[in-house]
Amino acid sequence: MKAVHCVLICASAVLAACSRPEVPPEPVRSVKLIRVGTDGLSATAEYAGDVRARTESAMGFRVGGKLVERPADVGQRVKAGQLLARLDEGDLALSSQAAQAAEAAARTQRDLAAADLKRFQDLLAQGFVSPAEIDRRQASLRSAEATLQQAQAQRAVQGNQAAYARLQADAAGVVVAVLAEPGQVVAAGAPVVRVARDGPRDVVFAVPEDRLVTVRPGLGATVRLWSAGEGGPALKAVVREVAASADPSTRTYQVRVALPADAPAPLGATARIVLDTVPGLAPSQVLRLPTSAVMAAGPGKGSQVWVFDAASGTVQPRDVNVATADGNDLVIAGGLKPGEEVVAAGVHVLTPGQKVVRFNPAQ
Predict the structure, then answer these.
(1) pLDDT tier for residue 40 given thresholds of 50, 70 and 90
(2) How distant, in Å, are the alpha carbons of 299, 307, 320, 325 from that of 296?
């Protein structure tokens, strides 16, 4: 009986083994491939901007008070030293008078201490006072002299405060904005008038993040004014300044292009700017990929792509250097060669050496 049970158990095991399905091989993943190209990023671009003075000063009072006069108006030309605005000088004048009176009182105390010392020195010569009394009178004189110096400094400060009630132009220019009106109480340092100084002028425009790689200080540019029409003169200019950070609201970078000294460019005029090609950034040297083809290699490890090897039918990761963005594409500065094929989508599910086949939309 036991032998029969053993035979049945063995037969059941054999049948179970025979009925177990074989594990199918891992299917080859179908991936979309893209060939690395060099026709993505234009080396030149055209922008719109406006003409501004090289230096614009937002001028304000160095003291606070009530604005009683503002002879400067928008568009008015001003000379150096010309009155732009004036505060009520009543309180400032009283403070200056009080400082002058304090100085006079301190001077009187100093003179009295000096005369007192002279008198006691004569008494010392006659033997009527001790040398210690002379020491006290000398100390009193030094204290009076220090008080006088303090009063003189305070009088000078109050005199300056009274002069600060008059806002004058630092240099010749034109008023481009008025920020306060008579009767208004302004704080010290608050802008009252903005003046564009005479002299060099710039064209100011904004560059988006994906075009920043095409702009750098010293780069040449051609500027045409809208008011001059299509046949207007082309002004040769140079990029003078590129903002170090983007505007938080527009995410663009402000660029200033220096105009020639004799350029007929009125303030506020609209201009078109065409930048020259950045050396070393010709279109033939720029590789680009869609953003879906690039993934993060890991914390602090940069970016990578999956390169397809046609001979083995496998993919391998490769580190790349991303220079900037160009619309929905990324500009690759290193790590790839033109003509190589990389996986264009689904890069996060691949493994090194994995076999893949080219995606065929017809299948």
Answers:
(1) very low
(2) 8, 15, 10, 15
